[in-house]
Amino acid sequence: MEKLKEYRKQKEKASPTKPVENQSDDRENDGDESDDSKLFQSLLQGSIVMENVKWSDVAGLEGAKEALREAVIHPIKFPHLITGKRTPWMGVLLFGAPGTGKTYLAKAVATEAYGSTFSVSSSDLVSKWLGDNRMLVKNLFSLARKRKPSIIFIDDIDSLCCSRRENESEASQQAKTEFLAQMQGVGNDNEGILVLGATSIPWTLDPAIRRRFEKRIYVPLPEEQARIFMFKQHLGSSPNSLTESDFVTLGQKTEGYSGADISIIARDALMQPVRMVQYATHFKRVRGAVWNDPGQVMDDLWAPCSPEDPIAVEMTWKDIQDSKLQEPVVSMSHVLKSLSNTKPTVDELDLEKLKEFMEDFGQEG
């Protein structure tokens, strides 16, 4: 957008008496549209992303995964199966409470699709200059057609495509009209292009936009088995003493928590032993593996301990050589303490609205 502002300033200097409002209207007549298109497309090049999230990294959501495979993966990997009347979906909407994994699903699609993926937010398609919103949308689709098979992922699409209102700005109206035309307009060839949208408030979408998303997939809160998987995934290879029964207990205790909530709990639990090291006043010598070379075992590592420990030495972490500090272990008590301090962020009223929308317009994932 900074490049776009500089370009605008140069145009104004070249024609200072020409009103800004008319510049976008006269583009097609003054022969500058091709130059503008190149500029807009160069700005949108940065939205092309490469992800490394596999289906196996996404906990649960089997229904949503299957629907996305049908809409995206199969047409790209097996085009000979999608012929005649068997046509792929052109628009898929992922809707659900915040933190349930909609964006993570989109990353998995980008990894598995083997095509170009354009990841944009509504703010990427908004400009203060009249006409630029429309041109950004138009050139996004134009660039996607050049690089097909491609996926256009728009996060928080409700900001761009909310219901039209009488007092709405002209720029916003132009962007919506262009979006509608590009998705299913006359003369547009969208073969090999999928528009993937994500929103947590789908009921605010314009009805015409909603209709163009042929598949509307509900992404619910994670089930118990998915929550267990998430705790294991977020703790990862960090040293911990949790058993399988501990993970089952955590899965049972986190009913109503989103994936993002569980991520916060795990991250806080991982930091608790580090805090213990920071505030410890006594340490003791222990035997253990070197943090950056697990195959090497040393007898002179230091670990925090109670002042009453028989071999405790009064010191702080600042007195210990970097390589001699034993990596602390996360315990079940650490995770339970983080859980008690973290409340679920999903509102019950929003959940009810999402379920109503799913019953009226959606498909359960």
UniProtKB/TrEMBL annotation:
Name a GO molecular-function annotation. ATP binding
Identify the GO cellular component terms for this protein.
Answer: endosome membrane
Q: What is the membrane topology listed in the Swiss-Prot or TrEMBL record? A: Peripheral membrane protein
Which compartments is it annotated to reside in?
A: Endosome membrane
Gene3D superfamilies tied to this protein: 1.10.8.60, P-loop containing nucleotide triphosphate hydrolases (3.40.50.300)
GO biological process terms on file: endosomal transport; vacuole organization
Provide this UniProt record's keywords sorted from A to Z: ATP-binding, Endosome, Membrane, Nucleotide-binding
Protein name per its UniProtKB record: AAA+ ATPase domain-containing protein
